[in-house]
Structures are given as C-alpha cells and as structure tokens.
Amino acid sequence: MTETRIERHHYDVVVIGAGGAGLRAAIEARLAGKKTAIISKSLFGKAHTVMAEGGAAAAMGNVNSRDNWQVHFRDTMRGGKFLNNFRMAELHAKESPQRIWELETYGALFDRTKDGKISQRNFGGHEYPRLAHVGDRTGLELIRTLQQKIVSLQQEDKREFGDYEARIRVFSETTITELLLDNDRVAGAFGYYRESGEFILFEAPAVVLATGGVGRSYKVTSNSWEYTGDGHALALRAGATLINMEFLQFHPTGMVWPPSVKGILVTESVRGDGGVLKNSEGKRFMFDYVPDVFRKQYADNEAEADRWYKDPDNNRRPPELLPRDEVARAINSEVKAGRGTPAGGVFLDIASRLPAEEIRRRLPSMYHQFKELADVDITKEPMEVGPTCHYVMGGVEVDPDSGAAYGTVRGLFAAGEVSGGMHGSNRLGGNSLSDLLVFGKRAGGHAASYADQLTARPAVSVAAVEAAVETALAPLQRDTGESPYTLQQDLQAVMGDLVGIIRREGELVDALARLAELRERVAKVSAAGGRRYNPGWHLALDLRNMLVVSECTAKAALERQESRGGHTREDHPAMDPKWRRVNLVCSLDGDTVRLTHKPLPKMRPELISLFDRAELAKYLTDEELAEFDALTEGER
Amino acid sequence: MGTDNTQATGKPGTKRPFRIWRGDENGGELRDYTVEVNEGEVVLDVIHRLQATDAPDLACRWNCKAGKCGSCSMEINGKPRLSCMTRMSTFEEGETVTVTPLRTFPVIRDLVTDVSFNYEKARETPAFAPPADVAPGDYRMQQVDVERSQEFRKCIECFLCQNVCHVIRDHEENKQAFSGPRFFIRAAELDMHPLDAKTDRKEYAQSEMGLGFCNITKCCTEVCPEHIKITDNGIIPMKERVVDRRYDPLVWLGSKIFRRGQVPQTSVTSGHSGGAVTAPAAHGGVHSHAGGSHDTAAERQAQQGVNWHREVPHPTAPAVDVNGKLPLTELTFDRAAAPSPFGDDVTFPLPPEHLNFAHPQQDEPKH
C-alpha cells in the first residue's frame, strides 16, 4: 500500500450519481453556495434517465383543469397499493409542477398544448392527462436540461471566480467504492477514475446518493450496466437501512428476441392501439387470466374486446390492458407451461391487427427502433416479448422531507430510484421523472444545510482509506479466482429464475443458499489486465454491491408472505392488510443482511379522508377502518 | 433453473472474424479475434461476448444499448457508428469486421477515446438565457415554434458528427477555434428557442465558435444516428442569417453587389476578414471535401483580404451521388474505410495556401 497515489479533493457536498436526481441535487447544493462535486459512473449526460420515454407526472392541470395534487396523491397511493410513505407521495404530488416549470427556465422544451402551455398525456394509473413529455424522449430532455443548467452555473462561476469548476465540478467516468465515516458521520468517499484506474478521495461532510437501481442483477432487464445497486450497497455499509427491497417492477413487454434488443421495452401503447398477446399455439391467452376483481371492466371474449377500441363506452376493455403486474404474471405462466416462444417469451402481434400504414403512423418510434436495432418489421411480424426487470421500488430508507438516510449514519442523503418509500409496492409510469426532480432538489438542499450547521468537519481516517485501496486492488492481484463475467451470469441466473417475477418459498430459500455460495466466489474474483479502463476489474468491484443488494431482495421476498404490487408470491397470492402496515427494513450486521419489521407511518387525517371508504376497505385492516370511520364521523 | 445465459434460439451461432484495435496513447495494433455471432446480434453484443471470453479487459463504452445514450460510438469498417445500432446482418458472412476507436479524439485505451474536447466546447457555448419578465409556469410557446429547436434537442451527444467533421478530424490545430457540428446545432437550437433572451447566437457562432470553418460537406448529417439535419436545418440557416443581420456598411455594400448565397462569410467582429468565400458549388467536381482550389495565386489573394471585384475560385464540391449525398453510407461506399474527408488525393499536412478558410480571429490584434 506504500506506493499508491491518491488524488484528494475537498468538497462541501458530494453527489454520487449524475442522472436526474443527482444533477438536480447538485444544482440545489451549488445554489445554496456549497462547493459541490458530481460523480458520474459514465460520461456526463449518459445516465439511465435518458431511457425514460413516457414523461414526467405533475398535476399542472394544463389539459384537464380538474387535476390537482390531491388527485395525483391518490393515484400514487393506489398505484403503490397504499404501502407508499404517504409524506413522500404528498410532497411529490404538491411539488412536481413547480419542478417541471423550473425546467423551462433552464431551457427545456416540452411539447405544447394549443394555448401554448406544457402538454400532458394520459398514462396508466393516472386519472387525468398528467405527463409532461417531449415525444417519447422525455428522459433525454430532462437530463440534457439539467446538464446544461449545470454548465450555465459553471459559466457564472467562471465570470465570478475565473474558473468553471470553482464551485461545481463533474467527475465523469468515476466510480465510488466506499463511503468513509468519522464515527457515525460521513467524512468522505473513495473511488477510482475508470479511465486511468487511479484512486480518488473526496473529503466531504455530506454525501447525496443518486445512483439509480439494481437491474443488472437480472438476466432480462431494461437497465444499463451502471445499475449495479452501488448506492444501496454503499448506504448499507455506511450503516443506513433499506426498505421495500422485495418490490421490483417488471415491465410485462420487454423484447426477448433478437438479442440486440433483449430487455428493451415495448411501450404499453402497442397494446392500447390494438396489439394482442398470443402464445406459441397462436391462442390469445389473456382471456384466461382476468382476475375476479377485474371481471367487470375487462372483456371475456374477443369480439367484445375488439369492439372496445372503437367504442370504449359500451364495451369492456381487452384483457391485454390489465395492469402491468397481471400481464407480466400471465406471460410468465404461459412460458412456464411450455407455450412460450423459443427465446422464452410470447408473441405481441400488431401486424395482423392494423394496416402497416396505420402502425407506422401511430407508433413511429417503436417501428423505427425495431427496424434499426433489430431489423424486425413490426408491421409484418409479431414481436417476441416477456417480462423485463425495469425498476426497483425499494431503496435507502430516508426522512421524507430531507432525504436524510435513516439508520446510524449522519450526513448521508438519497434521492431518486436509490431511495425507497415514495412508490410503495409499485411505481406508476411517469412518477419516476418527477420523483427525481422533487427529491433531488430536497436532498441537495438539505445536504447543503447539514454541511452548514456542522461545527467541525469529520475527518477521514488513514486506515479506512488503506482498507478501501486494498479492497479495490484485490481482484487485480489475484489470478486464481473466477472471471467476473461468469459470476455475474450466475448471479443473474439465480435472481432471474428464483427471485424473479413469481416467487415461491422453496425457490427463495434455494436462492439464499446460492447467493451465499456466490458470496464466497465473489470474494475470490480475479480480474485480468491492468488498472486503465479495465471493464473486467470494474465489474469485479460492482459484483460485491450487486450481491449484497440481491441478498436483501431475496430475504425480504421470503419474509413478506403476501402478493402486492411488485412482489408476487405464488404460495401467498392475495394481498393481506396486515402486511400493508409493515415495512421490511434491511441493515448490515458485519457481513450479514439483517431484516426487521417496522410499522408504516400513519397517514394524516386530512390525507386519508381523500379516499372513499369502499376503496380503503380493500387495503386496510378492520382496526384501521374503525379508526377511519371514527374520523369521518367526527367530521360530520 | 436456466443453465445458460446465451440461449440457443433460432440458428446456432457462427464463428466470425473480427479485427479490433487494442492499445493506448503509446500505440497499439489491430488484433484478430474469432467470435461466435448469433442471429439478430449487433456489433456491441459481439464485443460483450469477447469481453466475457477472450478479452476481459477490452475497453469500450456503452450504456443503454438502445441507441438512446450515444456512448458506444466507434468506427466500424472505417465508418463512424453506434455499435449498438450496427447489426451483424449488415455484413457478409465471413467478412472481417474491423473495429477502431474514434479517430478525431485521443485514444485512452482500446475503443475508448478522450472526448473531453466536446465537454469543453459545451462549456464555452453560452447557456439558455431565460426571459427576465416571465415567471416559471408562465412560459407560453406554440408547438410549431418549439419543434424547430426540438429537432436539435434530439441530439444524444454520441459525437459522431464531431468525429467525422473534417475541420478537426485530422487537424488538431483547428480544435481550439472550432466548436463543431454538435455545438452549432446547440447554438441553432437556442437561436430558434422562442423565449431565449440572448439575441446574438448566430453572430457568436460565427465569431467565437468557428462556424465559418464549416464548408457544408454534410458529413455530420450523414453519420447522425438521430437523423438530425445538422447542416440543412442547423448550420446553413445560421450562416444565412448571420449574413442577413450584417450591419457593417462594407458588408452591406457587399450584399448589394453579390447575390445572396455568394456573400463572403466573414466574422462579425472583423468586417474585412479574408474569410472563406462560398459560391454556388459546381456539382460533381473533384472529390475533395476541403474544397482547396489548388490555384495558389488566387488562394494567396484570398488570404489577403476581401477583394470585392475578384472572382474567387469556386471551392470544389464533393463527389455526390444522384441523391446529392456523399458516398459515406456503409451500403454505397466502395471501400472498407471512411474516405479521407479532404479527398483521397490530398497529402498532409495541407499547405496553408491550399486551405480556403480563414481563421475567424486572424485579423484581431495579437495580445
């Protein structure tokens, strides 16, 4: 360890992650006058946020003036099956319009309504048209706008201090491997430049995690390589806690074939515009999977379903338009029953349903995407689709107002996909982009004020840095271990097959045993080559994070004996009001994941009164309902 | 439980020859690999398989693998491409696929280049200036007005246009004064933004970003994976309107003498600069993108300042096909490498008298 060169930096706030949440947090910290660093695992502006297509949900009421934050709040709680942290859902619904309007002052150009306001589109689960959008590239617009706002702040600093990087600097292609603590306080972060393999140490009293999700632990995923759960794992190791880790959103229709587009989403509008799901026997199977609670709204025969597209008022909806989790489960069952395609999916057929011209007109980007990426002509042949891992609802347990992590650590904040609670057991489409902005701003602002009120800076200990260096270099110094690529494939197989969309007790127990085995193997992983831009080494270091987060997911999935949103237990198929009152909290005890039960915070009276009793009855325990009745009694 | 990550579906994979550049700033070589290729794969899939098998430390950037992030830019058989959008089915069976890093930027390792040039230029481009008297939430714009800027905001910053632009591709020395197509469309986007409060975007692009260097060979448009009409909708309107807005009396006089489109492209800040003079290009000329006329006397004269009465040599136009496009697309070009943007007959370094553009700041006093 004697010869290791480490570049040192001092900042007030270090933001790990340069997607929507990270950039918004950094902007806020810098606006509060703090010296801010942004750590980006890839190049600046490439973050996974660019993949978001649909839009950003905000109750601006531009298209339907009846929309307001209360309606948005209700939709969000419903979508999350009432497991959401109500305070986060409330803040999100209240503040997202301002966050969107603010983007316009940074230069964003959303699609417009006729009267020149921001246009809003319909989306699953949202009562009114609510998603601000730019065609189907809203995520790109968001990231580019924030990126350009940061540049404009740098230009201000250049004018004032003569240096672009005087108060805000982007460290691109830099990975953080360890958070450093001074007792229970965050003191800094340690990592490496991907380009050179050189180490870098940030001394900073406040760290904001905005690292996104965990999808890379799954075989079929719409997530990029960066999604290795770094923030989740860093938080755990620093003494913070994770909640809701059993809840993963699988999008029902990701491409499974050809390999060039595996995991890529086929938008819900394909089904909305007439696309139907068929198994390998050519049967339109969704009619067999309409749950009893939905029978009233969904057609039970093809003739009625087909009439719905033209006359939705007098016919019931086609079953292809059931909620995401229902469709995903149905596809999964067909494949498990041996009626899937060779690549393990089912057919999504729009080609035989609409004239080619019409398909190209209604779904231009889908048509072009598959034509260009895969040479699949969706006007001529059916697509092969299956559930793809899309989003993790779970994440760092945070204080709803400030984004400060719970647990034993202080000075750690989290925002965006890496934080938990906001979306409960299931996220609504469009709520993610607004989540990034609302809680990114909050986390950045509170990190700045936390740094302000400290009397003394926490100190980084030399021993901790030496340990971090040793851990980081270990895979390069071993040549006896396995390849990180093999280990990742094995991890993906365990998670995809045993902790996937449908879960069973036996499989989850098996998964935990296999993960324990993998842990031994990952501890001995070796990476060939040197330190300069060596993807094998990078993956070897990421594996450790993927593994511990996977353990949290598997443990929590085994513990929660019910099915709710993004967690489906075949052996406990129903939703159980008792489980709604429980958050499963993961923490790290030495090396092992510890799981505890924690009661969900209780909704404030004026918020719970926004719901009908009939609706609440589906979710609440009798005890809670009695309380609700007493409350409404008092109002009358 | 699944046994294999690479499911055998459809036809079994075939072994295909690949040549990949391996090395760093100290030099490197094209190394041969034989890799399994399955039906429906793209070049990036094959690179990933190589990483998982023969070359675990092969460096390559990628993120979304869906043509949306612009990370995996490289040169495939000499053509600048996104590797996630280059299907293996576009190559002949048995054809060697050669993959090299972007040529315009310094190599870091293997297929990864140092693209910081682009981020520096981004930082130098003045940001959106919000209108002072419009509160957040009160912005009103018509769809038809935002659409022009939205086209440019589709840019995924893959930097293929920067890579292919001949002004900097083999001319390190031009990098300082030239921002490149990516940032010309950024300037155009802000210029066309209905509410941007800064009014001198075009003039700035001309005087500070080196817009005048561009002689519209459209290579950038050819390689754009988002199909943004960089030249037609971005650069050319910027150039035209720089001319429109000219207030300098000398230039005003010039605009009376020359027909539109023939007016010298000079920098706003130096009214008498000996800029590149664009004249209607003779179609089907010698293939030489730089447009050097090889008439040294005329070129020398052109360097010395604007001579309003002189017939300036026409820049030679690139050899375009019947559709008016360069033979740069993979299907139409006749050899397995990108053409030299200066024409295959030109040797480097180019003698200064053969250059037909002038540095936008050449007439400013040296500090």
Automatic annotation (TrEMBL), chain A:
Keyword field: FAD, Flavoprotein, Oxidoreductase
According to the entry, every stretch annotated as the Fumarate reductase/succinate dehydrogenase flavoprotein-like C-terminal domain falls at 489-600
Q: Domain FAD-dependent oxidoreductase 2 FAD-binding, which positions?
A: 12-433
Name the SUPFAM superfamilies on file: FAD/NAD(P)-binding domain (SSF51905), Succinate dehydrogenase/fumarate reductase flavoprotein C-terminal domain (SSF46977), Succinate dehydrogenase/fumarate reductase flavoprotein, catalytic domain (SSF56425)
Catalytic-site annotation from UniProt: R324
Which residues are involved in binding FAD? 17-22, 40-55, 230, 417, 432-433
Cofactor(s) for this UniProt protein: FAD
Which amino acids does the record list as binding substrate?
A: H251, T267, H390, R427
Task: Name a Pfam family for this protein.
Answer: Succ_DH_flav_C
Heme: present as a keyword of the record? Answer: no
What is an example of a GO molecular function annotated in this UniProt entry? steroid dehydrogenase activity, acting on the CH-CH group of donors
Matching PANTHER family, A to Z?
A: SUCCINATE DEHYDROGENASE 2 FLAVOPROTEIN SUBUNIT, SUCCINATE DEHYDROGENASE [UBIQUINONE] FLAVOPROTEIN SUBUNIT, MITOCHONDRIAL
What protein name applies here? Succinate dehydrogenase subunit A
What organism is recorded for this protein? Micromonospora chaiyaphumensis
| Species lineage | Bacteria, Bacillati, Actinomycetota, Actinomycetes, Micromonosporales
From TrEMBL, chain B:
Pathway annotation from the record: Carbohydrate metabolism; tricarboxylic acid cycle
Q: Which molecular-function annotations from GO does this UniProt entry contain?
A: 2 iron, 2 sulfur cluster binding; 4 iron, 4 sulfur cluster binding; electron transfer activity; metal ion binding; oxidoreductase activity
Give the PROSITE patterns listed for this entry.
Answer: 2FE2S_FER_1, 2FE2S_FER_2
**What is the name of the protein in this document?**
Succinate dehydrogenase / fumarate reductase iron-sulfur subunit
Q: Which CDD domains does this entry report, sorted A to Z?
A: fer2
Q: Compositionally biased, Low complexity: which spans? A: 279-294
Record carries keyword Nucleotide-binding = no
Q: Name one GO biological process term.
A: tricarboxylic acid cycle
Read off the Pfam families from this record.
Fer2_3, Fer4_8
Q: Which PANTHER family would you find in this protein's record? A: SUCCINATE DEHYDROGENASE [UBIQUINONE] IRON-SULFUR SUBUNIT, MITOCHONDRIAL, SUCCINATE DEHYDROGENASE IRON-SULFUR PROTEIN
Q: Fetch the InterPro entries from UniProt.
A: 2Fe-2S_ferredoxin-like_sf, 2Fe-2S_ferredoxin-type, 2Fe2S_fd_BS, 4Fe4S_Fe-S-bd, Beta-grasp_dom_sf, Helical_ferredxn, SDH/FRD_Iron-Sulfur, Succ_DH/fum_Rdtase_Fe-S
Cellular compartments per GO CC: plasma membrane
Cofactor entry: [3Fe-4S] cluster; [4Fe-4S] cluster; [2Fe-2S] cluster
Q: Which domain of life is it from?
A: Bacteria
Which family is this protein grouped under? Answer: Belongs to the succinate dehydrogenase/fumarate reductase iron-sulfur protein family.
Map out region (Disordered) in residue numbers: 265-304, 347-367
**Domain 2Fe-2S ferredoxin-type residue range list:** 16-103
The UniProt keyword set, sorted, is: 2Fe-2S, 4Fe-4S, Iron, Iron-sulfur, Metal-binding, Oxidoreductase
